Structures are given as structure tokens and as C-alpha cells.
User: Fold these one by one.
Assistant:
Number 1:
Amino acid sequence: MVVGLVETAVPTAKSTISSVVKKPTFLSSDPIINVARGDPTIYEPYWKKMGDRCKVVIAGDEFMSYFCNTMNLCWFLLPELDNAIRTLHRVVGNAMVDDDRFIIVGNGSTQLFHALLYALSSPDLPEPINVVAAAPFYSSYPEETKFLQSKLYKWAGDANCYDKDEPYIEVVTSPNNPDGSIRGTVVNREGSKAIHDLAYYWPQYAPITSKADHDAMLFTFSKATGHAGTRIGWAIVKDKVIAAKMVKFIEVSSIGVSREAQLRAAKILGVIADDCRNPDHKGENLFQYGRRLMSERWGKLREVGMKSNGVFSACQSTHEIIANSPANTLIQTLLLHG
Amino acid sequence: MVVGLVETAVPTAKSTISSVVKKPTFLSSDPIINVARGDPTIYEPYWKKMGDRCKVVIAGDEFMSYFCNTMNLCWFLLPELDNAIRTLHRVVGNAMVDDDRFIIVGNGSTQLFHALLYALSSPDLPEPINVVAAAPFYSSYPEETKFLQSKLYKWAGDANCYDKDEPYIEVVTSPNNPDGSIRGTVVNREGSKAIHDLAYYWPQYAPITSKADHDAMLFTFSKATGHAGTRIGWAIVKDKVIAAKMVKFIEVSSIGVSREAQLRAAKILGVIADDCRNPDHKGENLFQYGRRLMSERWGKLREVGMKSNGVFSACQSTHEIIANSPANTLIQTLLLHG
């Protein structure tokens, strides 16, 4: 879900993307590193090199139905995408995707974040459930939570300061946006609920140390591969009731997810998995390519930082990135700017 | 927005689509006309005949960006789709799409319905704004409105019975789902707001008597062409502030709309417009084809109705369809079942 088009480490009610519209030259060519705007087209040259391997062709009479698989709880999930997601996670080893886990596809993981807020809250509670995240957190979480003024959930701020004796949902982003740190829950009260946003838990951004196996995990195609215009995210969910509530949310919100986007995501994730499993006949796979780019960009960034006489300082140790710029978005900076 | 996968004329809190998952044989082959389930694949043979004209090909390195057009208020709307929508409406003459109208694309018009509820409500009002529709109305409206228990808007039932002296939004579906009637607002109080859902205001479902020119109009690709798996809807909006709020809603909900689906919708809408403008070298255009199918189905339905000894009675006069079946969905029946 961590998409960070335009973001700061400080929660803000103002639209972050709308500002781009007002100033369309969002990818500046001037020498200032603009950490507040960006667009993850970093992998474009990589996919260009793939040629026809990632091409999709869709005939006019395909995908006329609402339904992708009526035997699946997530009836709007294309079986090819379900399979590609599970295969890639198994190859990479970054998330548990045994067959008893439910995969829910969304229009970007942003929609799945909303779906999880709905699924983890309850109309039976006397008060909206509190939603917290440890600062610094992705700047859109507060806005997304507060947006429709739901009586089901409400934004309750920094998890580090959360001391209410009330039910809560903790949003954990790991590696974190904006600071790249590896994270777990910080409140840790019995009966708590958590959303684990693992948008950046891929080999180009972080060392994969174990298969993540949380109750509800979010991933997004845009950060895994750079295809931001393809609004595809997926959740891996253990509990069937939660999964069913998420499906319901996406049914009521948008009656599913476009098949064309799912088909393309399935194709591209499949190619990545193939290249990881068969390294002999290809050059760099996506993760190796991305890791090299991140390292090069990190080098440039550090250089600029050193020249800037302490405007920001940063260190990187096994991809743990710490920055103290007032509006730092280091992961985004690395990802979006050369 | 009127999609009517599984619906009755009676509001229900129960998921209508989920029941399909439980009973996957949703398109029954038995002789009973099942008006409660369906999938609009009626036009599949038509599109099959189109062959490569409607084929889309997408390379792996295309559509990497979040942005479709940063100069447009609706920055996630593909210019090709914007152009195809305006062109088709001009050719058909069913909606005013002058350049001062804003086109907002959504993940199905379902998402745009939610966007309009958000855009037409106000956090400054002391109470949630009332949302009404004249019965019989599309069964999902109440659920979609109540779903997240927003403090911004609330479902207030049948517009025919609305007598509160409070602000309200009236949802008008014309031709109406489920009964096919041509409709206008029924409350007509000063300062009112309306959502005009014109999903079926196309030549195969209704005579096009004028260019609709309401403040906020919804259309959906699934009913215009039968491509339900492509979650594309569009709104035509007069007021810039409302349009901007809708864009904001879709930004916060899903960061836009998949480019692949938009590209495909643009291609297919373009082919329809071309065939309407150049009738000489083709057979039936989509609307002629659809109209013929509707007539055939209407004939069959009437026959069944006569044999059923008054279980339902119906009449059709210039596509005004009236039915008194307890769970009638006549438009759906015509559309979905042969």
C-alpha cells in the first residue's frame, strides 16, 4: 500500500497527489533532489529489454464476465494471478502463501487497506476502533482512515504514544516508508489487530530474512515491479472471515478488479519468477537489477548529502536507512530519482 | 452504476454477489427464468465477430506511471478514453459532453457512485445528508450508502415518501433498474442534489430522445458494451469543485484506475463510434445488434409470461417496461437471459 507519490513524514490532510496536478512538471530536471514528488518509472528500461516476453494481448470478446472464478472466495481474482502471486512469493521466500492462506486482489493495495479497515472493525463496538501507526509513517494513512468519517474506525495517531485502553488496529510498514526501517508492532496489547504493509519487502529494497507470516499482509504491484499505472495490489490473509469481509468491501466499492490489469500483473510476476528460478540464460533478474540501481542511487544520495554540509545525514546498513531530513522520504528518493 | 449482478427490487443488506459464490452455477440452464442472477455476456458473439479490430496489445514497459495526464483535472484519465467517451456520446446523442464538462473515470461506475456521495456531501453539515431514490430502485444503493457508516451521508429510503426538511441527494436511474421506466427527480426541492445514473441510456435499451444534461451523470462500460470484467465507468460532471472532489475520492480510494482497462475501453468505444458513423461497410453496429437481441428476448419473455397464467404481466411501449413480479428485474432479464 505504501505508494508515496507525493509524501512527507508528517501527516497531512492536504491532498498530496493533487498538488502534482497543479504543478505538472513533477519530475524536475534541476539538481535539487525533490523528495516530495515522484513516479516509480525506474524499472522501465528493464521491462523494455524484456521485449515480447511481458506483452499481453486481449481480444475484444475476452473478459466479458464479472466473475473470474466462482469457486474461489475471492470470485474476482483471476486464477492466473492467484497462481503467479503464490509462485513468486515461494521463489522469493518473502511471504507465507500456503494454500490455506487467502489471496485478495484489489485496485492497488490502497483499496485493500480500506478493505482491511472495514474487515477488522466491527459495527458492534460502541466506538470506532482506533487506527495507529508508529511515526514516522506513510503520510496518507491518516487521510485514508479519516476520509469518509466512518463510525467503524478512526485515526488515533502515533502508535508510540497510544495508551488508550480501547480496541485498536496497528498499521505496520516494513521496510518502513519513509525511513526504510524494519518494523514490528509497537503497542502489543492482547486482542490487538494489525495490518502489515509489506510493499517494500522485496529483495531490491531489503534483505529477505524470513517468510513473513502475519494475519493480514499487503503487497503492491507498483513497488514490486514498478507498474504503478496497473492498479493491482494483493492481500494475504489467514482468517476466512476477514478475507470474506474484504471481498465484500471490494464488491460494494467497485465490483471487483479489472481483468486486464490482473492478466498483465500475472504475466509480469510470472516472468520474474521464471527468471529467478532459471538464472543461467538471462542477465540480471528484476531484483538484481533493482538492487544495483538502489545501490547506485544510494551512492549518489550520500554524495549529495556529504556536499550539502549536513542538511541531512544518513547511513545504510543492510538496507536500514535512517534519515533526519524534516521531510524525508528516503525509500522514495532512492526509488524515484536517479 | 446499475450493474445488477444479483438483485431484487427490495433493498437488502445481504451481499447479493456472494450468494453467487455459494452457488456457482449462476447461469442456470433450466427453463425457469432466473431474474436474480446473471452476467452480461450477451454481447460476446458480437465482439468475437469484430476480430482484431478490438484487440489491445500492451508491452511490458508501458503504463509504468501513476499519471495519465497531469494537465487534466482527472490526472488518472487516459486521454484516449476521454476522447472516446466524448466522441461516442456525440455520435449517439445521449449526453452533453461539451468541453466544459469534466469526465471522471472510475473503477466501474460503482466507485463513481461512492465518489459522488462524497463529493455532494459536506463535513460542515450538522447531520449526514439524506440519500433517497424512488422505489423500485437498484437494490445495491442502500447497501452502498450505508456500508461504511459515514457521518457524511446516510440512506433515507424511498424518494416518494421523503418529507424531511433536510438536505438530500436523490439518485435517479433512467431507464430505471429494475423496471425500465424513464425517470426524473421526484422530490424537487430547492437546493437539492441529484445523481443521474444513466447506465442504460443507450440505444439498445431506450429511445434516445435528447442529450441528457444533468449536473452529475454516471455511465458504465459494462452496460454500454457488455464488458463487465473491465471495471470502467465514467461520470460527466458540470461543476469543477464536484469533479475535483470526485478525483480526490478516487485518489484516496485506489490512486486512480488501471490504464490497461482504460485503454481497452477506449479502443472498444472507438470502434462502436466508428461503426455508427460509417454504417455502409459493416453489418449491424452494437446498438442495432443489442436492440434486436432485446426485442427477441422481450418476445420470449412475453411468451413465458402469457403461459405462466398471470404470474407476471408486462407491457412494452417504446421500451417502457412495467412488471409486477415480486422480485422483478426486467431489464436484467432481457439483458442477461436468452
Number 2:
Amino acid sequence: MSQAPVKRARRPSGGRDQLLETAVGEFIARGYDATSMEDLSRAAGITKSSFYHHFAGKEALLRAALERAVDGLFGVLELPTARDGSPVQRLRVIIAEQVRVLMTELPYVTLLLRVRGNTETERWALERRRAFDAAITRLVRDAVDAGEVRADVDPALAAKLLSGLVNSIVEWYRPGRPGTATLPEDVVQAALTGIVPSPTPNP
Amino acid sequence: MSQAPVKRARRPSGGRDQLLETAVGEFIARGYDATSMEDLSRAAGITKSSFYHHFAGKEALLRAALERAVDGLFGVLELPTARDGSPVQRLRVIIAEQVRVLMTELPYVTLLLRVRGNTETERWALERRRAFDAAITRLVRDAVDAGEVRADVDPALAAKLLSGLVNSIVEWYRPGRPGTATLPEDVVQAALTGIVPSPTPNP
């Protein structure tokens, strides 16, 4: 068909999502504080004013990146399978899906985990992380109360260790790495039965 | 007694160990790259030339700090109780002692865990971390081979998850925090039986 050519952006990689991804890469490599809009424009190969056309500034980029990570994590808590069933069934779903979010949104979650609270946006992100951990703490407490988890488990400590176990994956997981297809289920197994569990007496 | 006053440094806090501790605090707060000898001298309340009297420069400080963390961790592997006994008994000792090193050497281990490999010293530290993880991987493999750990456990993944579990404590542990006296044993328990373990069938 010989229609007039569709008007399209000269840089298909210069869209908002792509700019965000570039910015997050720079934030992770240099540190947020040490990265300027100048650095970001150079990394994206566009002018500073083109960059400002998409994002009001550095903190707007940080906010968009952290929202993507936070929305991914809280989306897990909203899944029907994370809301129904026994506390341990829900925990299983949440841990597996949290690992999946981490694998698919790796740079955004990595950035979220490095946040230290120096800006309003960072303090908002820390508050969201605490809210997520509080939801996990409540669920572990429900599991203990229901007799599904050993009674001597401290829910607050368990939630911190779960968070540490899951989040530590950002340190070494890279997309496409062989042997990581079963990672979500492997982490669930480790959380529920141990990282180095005894053989079951009756296998 | 009316002896002549003992000659003492005007700043008892200006010794080598204290300077190192101050520097590590600044490295953690600002990031190593963003910290100058100027910043360090100011934080320590001494002149730059007094600082250089103790340390040849910034990288010498980093090296001393990372050596302290690395020596602490490798010291664990050298403990008699970490060298004798079944693989799982040795793992129990190593995990507990690794948590203790982390608690007592918190800032130094925190710095070690943030190292990204930008300098020769940082690459040395990363190599030492890999060597430590390799020792744990071998021990988990021995435990699987001895039938002490479930046969479907992947030793390399288990070593990564163990490292993640233990090291995540630096994110929230602070000395003197109530309820952390049993942390070393709690982490051992979590690693061997699960963070949210089922109640034992016959308690």
C-alpha cells in the first residue's frame, strides 16, 4: 500500500522508556549523586533539552525508575494467588513472584536497593520498602499463628532474612545466565526448607 | 603521685585505628570515589599531612580497611572448629562465625560488600570474596556428597544464597540493637532448616 510514510521519531531508541533505562544504567554505574543531566544526555546520545522534554530533571528520572520497581513489588502483593490461600501458600507465591520481578526489572530493583534516603524521592522509596517488609512480617506472623511455621520463628527477623535472601540475587543474577530458569522456585525452596537442608528421612 | 605529666598525643582519637575507622565511615557515607583526603582530614580533625603520616593515601586506607574485613572472614575458615567435623558441622560453625565477624567488624565488612572493582585494591578484594565463596561451595558439595544435605541442592547456588543471607544483615544490623544476641545461631537455623520452616512433625 502506498500511503504517505508514517511519521516516526528519528531515534526509535530515544523514547521515554529507553531514556529511563539509559539513566538507570548510569545511576547504577556512577551513583545517583555523581550523575549529571549532562552525563545522561551524553549516554543517551541526545541533547539536554531533548532529555528535559521527556523528564523534568534528574529526580523525576529517579522517581520514575523507583516507581517502576515499587509498582512491580506491590503488584506481587495484589495478585489473586498472593491474596488467597493459607499464609504459607501466599508466602510461596510472593517469594517466587518477587524473584521474577527482580529478574525482569533487574536495573530498577537494583537502584531501589541502593537508595539511602538523601532526597524526598529516596525517602519515599525507603518508606515503600518498609511497607512491603511490614506486609511480609504480618504474613509470617499469620503463618506462625496458623501453626504452618515453627512457633519459635520471629516474624520480623524472618521478614528481614527473606528480604535479604531474595534481594541478594541482584548481586549476581544476569539475564540469560544458564541454570537460572528455576531460580524463583529454588529460592522458595531455600526459604521454606533451608539453603542447605538435611535429606528428608523418607524421600 | 606528682610525676611529670605523661607525654600524650593531644588527640587520643588520632591513632591509626581511629583514623581508619573515621575514613571507613566517610567512604560508606559519601562513596569511596567521592571522598578526598581533604574530606578525611576534616572528618578526623587533623591536618592532611598528619593523615599522610599514618597512611600513604586514600587507596592505602581502603586496602587497610578491606584487609581487616577479609582477614576476619578468612580467619573463620582457619578456626579449628571450622576445619574439623562433618561438612555440615563445619558449615554451622562458619555461618555463625561469619555473622559474628559481620557484627563486630560491621563498617569494614559493609565497605567490602560495596566494592565494585574500580581499583587494584578493589579487584583484590573481589578476588578474595570469590575465594571465600569457592571454599563454601566446596564445603556444600562435600555435604551433599556425604548425604548430609539434600541431593538436589546445587552447591554453587547454595553458596551464593548463603552469602546473600548472611551479608544482607549489614543492611539493618546495628550494634546494641535489642534481640540480636542470638543472631548468629538464628541465621544458622534459617540456613539449615528454612527462614519460614514447617513445624517439625514430632516436636
